[in-house]
Amino acid sequence: MTSGKQLFSTLADGILTVEILETNYSDPTGNQVLVKMEAAPINPSDLALLTGAADLENAEYSDGKFVASMPEPFYSAQKGRHGLRLPVGNEGAGTVVAAGEDEAAQALIGQRVACVPGSAYSQYCVVDASMCLPLGDISSEDGASAFVNPMTALSFAETARAEGHNAIIHTAAASNLGQMLIRICQEDDIALVNIVRKPEHVELLSNMGAKHVVNSSDEDFADQLRGAIDSTGAYLGFDPIGGGQTVDSCFRAMEQVAVKYMDEYSRYGSNQQKKMYIYGRLDMGPTILTPAYGFGWTLSGWLLFPFLQKAGTETAARMRQRVLSGLTSTFASSYKSKVTLEEMLTKEAVTDYRLMKTGEKYLVTPQE
Amino acid sequence: MTSGKQLFSTLADGILTVEILETNYSDPTGNQVLVKMEAAPINPSDLALLTGAADLENAEYSDGKFVASMPEPFYSAQKGRHGLRLPVGNEGAGTVVAAGEDEAAQALIGQRVACVPGSAYSQYCVVDASMCLPLGDISSEDGASAFVNPMTALSFAETARAEGHNAIIHTAAASNLGQMLIRICQEDDIALVNIVRKPEHVELLSNMGAKHVVNSSDEDFADQLRGAIDSTGAYLGFDPIGGGQTVDSCFRAMEQVAVKYMDEYSRYGSNQQKKMYIYGRLDMGPTILTPAYGFGWTLSGWLLFPFLQKAGTETAARMRQRVLSGLTSTFASSYKSKVTLEEMLTKEAVTDYRLMKTGEKYLVTPQE
User: Fold this and answer.
1) DSSP secondary structure code for residue B164 in this structure
2) Residues A171, A172, A178, A182, Cα dihedral to 10°
3) Which of A207, A366, B81, B120 is deepest in the core (most CB within 10 A)?
């Protein structure tokens, strides 16, 4: 039996405790492999378990541990996890050091793989061989973010094609994922409307060759957005913000453009179907939808795993292959800081990465 | 050429003018028929053009006319109709008195029909024969509401079946439409969760045989709703309110029930897909969605005509046939008051029907 250090998150009695503990990993059986984890990114999707809305300013920090109070309504909203000691870390990469008896598992021994264990902030992980992406010559650091962002961004292009759209709106578009999406849409000839909120992000994305970048902080944002929708025909959008009126702004602009092309007034609005997906919750406030765009709209939550399940193994395999061949180009991630398991729980690190600033991603290196 | 009285609604310079004018109707050609209108209901969907958010208390009322100011933001929100003189009245029934040269049109001469002209508050309407529903022995009053409510309620059952659901949540369920839906669901063996907001409506619907009626004004509303969802498996809902947190309450309750049946905690919520449709705007305030039910949900606007178009002519014809055979039973409407074209524009009438009180529907009789 292998043992090592692993990060756990426990929410109980209004208190969030995140700590590094010594753990015994079960031996891999059947199609499972044991991966010695070498690199794991901190994605926004990890923060739900890692920090949530905890009071990190006034938390108690000690070696490999922090203890923070979790304010209401956030404490009660997570009733399902009260008292549970949960592993954290969606994805990462490392080397397969042991395997179950199945052929596919055995074949991976000694190989570097990317994987999605849900417990990546750990020195070892047990995962199914079928969910491993062999990295070949690519380093664990380059392969650590091979799954969540690349597959999500690719899924947006897949979704657009599957739903008959040739253009996409993306909000919070300066993110790592947003930059990937720009490259994907360039390769796939999909028009992309990028919404950012800072002038330097307009410049960043424009320098990448993005044709339509609109700044939600500008006074004429609504005008900019209508113009971009009008010239691209983007009636499908993806939003990682969730709260507030970002989705509402998109629906409103879509409808205003569509109405321009109507021959006759209709009290019900245009017949143009408008669709938005919320795929993240950077803003935990409520989503506000105003009655300003008739009834021809659909808003959905979006998650990667249900999407991949619905898309089927063939599509998922094709997408994985594309990610692998572009891991250091189209799908490259960059990191602001590298931290060890212990360092990721210091006040300095925690209060910094929970801000989810554009271009300031952390990478965890569990072996150091 | 036939002439007669017709109601028109004009919004211009912040003022809503609704008036009865003498009009010349064009002669029917091709497949068109001229219907002498005998009865037309005032549905909530008519109020958007008829009153909207106009200041009806302080309006100027004269014979066959009222002039009211339209407050912001409602005036600007209807930019598309500024200065247009629009007919009003989705549906009604009457007798075909003239027809174009096509056989189908000619065959309707002398028959009583229900129709959806969009200009039903008028002594005559020109409509396409293919959109007429011959009423046979049924009176125009009984047939006046044969389209909007019956077809909408039937569409909910069609939608449930098409999307693989066996149970429905309906909000504002004490309405005329809600009562039809109860009868349809009884006939079709679909479980129905009725949300109402008054104890007398709980009684009303229970007396009709509704098994699940929950009162949103009760303190334990959330408990009642969870209980009803748990025993029916209703993860699909239809909401005519739109604004506020009705949809949010439904999603929240659906998720809380679904989470009970999960083996393992997931930060992303349950895998149970939750779906709500907004098909009306009884509340013009914003729709508020809180981040309390993960990402497995979809909210859509819903309109009858796009639905029927998508469903296809065969389905629509089958639905129409069912409505016709149940017009005085399953699909019966009842009215609080009958008014002439002129009477419908008095202060007493306008300020009453715009309240859209349950069970207090108006019927317009344009020939009187």
Assistant:
1) T
2) 50
3) B120
Distance from CA of A84 to the nearest CA of B (A): 9
Structure tokens at B97: 């008195």
Cβ–Cβ below 8 Å for B291 and A299: no
Same-fold call for A2-145+333-364 versus A149-306: no
Q: What is the ipTM of this complex?
A: 0.90
Query: Hey, what CATH topology would domain A149-306 get?
Result: Rossmann fold (3.40.50)
Look up the CATH number of domain B2-145+333-364.
Answer: 3.90.180.10
Share of chain A above pLDDT 70, in %: 100
Q: Quick check: A286 and B281 CB within 8 A?
A: no
Geometric angle at alpha carbon A122, from A119 and A126, rounded to 5° = 60
B141, exposed or middle or buried, with CB in 10 Å at 0-12, 13-18, 19+?
middle
Strand order in B15-25's β-sheet? B60-62, B65-69, B15-25, B2-12, B85-87
pLDDT averaged over chain B? 94
Distance from CA of A201 to the nearest CA of B (A): 27
pLDDT, tens digit, 9 for 90 and up, residues A13-56: 999 999 999 999 999 999 999 999 999 999 988 998 999 999 99
For residue A281, give the nearest of B80, B291, B301 by CB distance: B291
Indicate yes or no: CB of A288 within 8 angstroms of CB of B292: no
- Which residue of A lies nearest to B86 if distances are taken between CA atoms? A265
Sheet of strand B236-239, all strands in order from the earlier edge strand to the far edge: A212-215, A191-196, A167-171, A236-239, A274-278, A297-301, B297-301, B274-278, B236-239, B167-171, B191-196, B212-215
Higher pLDDT, A269 or B226: B226
3-state secondary structure of B272: coil
CB A195 within 8 A of CB A228: no
Cα separation, A228 vs A244, in Å, equals 21
